[in-house]
Amino acid sequence: MTPRARVHALIAGVPVERCAFWLGCPPQEIQATLHTVLGSTSLEELLQFLGDNVCWIGPQHFASTYSHPAGMSMRPW
Known about the structure:
Elements: H1 3-12, H2 28-38, H3 43-50
């Protein structure tokens, strides 16, 4: 079962062979530790190795996303 099919099945309430996994976006320090322990060299490689089923696509990846006139980020905190 592909990651996409697994997530769709879970949302539809269909039984799957295992639950979906999402690592999220760990802080750089955690990523560095995981790279050292698991031997990965990039976040994408790490996600593939761990079997991550969900990919975060933030609005910053789209030119059509609203931009604040003063250049403030969407999450100023």
